[in-house]
Write a structure and sequence with these properties.
CATH architecture: Orthogonal Bundle
Protein name: Cytochrome c domain-containing protein
Organism: Magnetofaba australis IT-1
CATH class: Mainly Alpha
Order of helices and strands: HH
Keywords: Electron transport, Heme, Iron, Metal-binding, Transport
Bound molecules: protoporphyrin IX containing FE
CATH superfamily: Cytochrome c-like domain
Shape: globular
Pfam family, one: Cytochrome_CBB3
Radius of gyration: 10 Å
Number of helices: 2
CATH topology: Cytochrome Bc1 Complex, Chain D, domain 2
Structural class: mainly alpha
Distance between the termini: 16 Å
GO molecular function: electron transfer activity; heme binding; iron ion binding
Helix content: 55-70%
């Protein structure tokens, strides 16, 4: 989770920082990652 949050906040390769949502809060982005990872089973 910490590593994924680092990727999102700073960007990774072709992934833009914050997924381009510059007015999303860190908590909102973290909630999005928690949702995505909860579905990936
Ligand atoms: C809030 C919106 C978004 C969230 C929460 C999100 C989340 C993620 C996460 C968790 C990863 C995996 C990172 C890792 O492996 O460490 C990822 C990878 C990626 N995302 Fe997103 N993403 C978002 C928006 C976007 C958008 C808008 C784009 C393209 C314009 C994008 C392009 C990519 C790409 C290309 C990767 C693969 C990066 C790589 O490993 O080379 N993402 N994203």
């Amino acid at each position: 989770m910490d590593a994924l949050m680092h990727s999102i906040l700073n960007g990774k390769n072709a992934m833009p920082p914050k997924g381009t949502c510059m007015d999303c809060s860190d908590d909102e982005l973290k909630a999005a990652v928690e949702y995505l990872t909860s579905r990936a089973k």
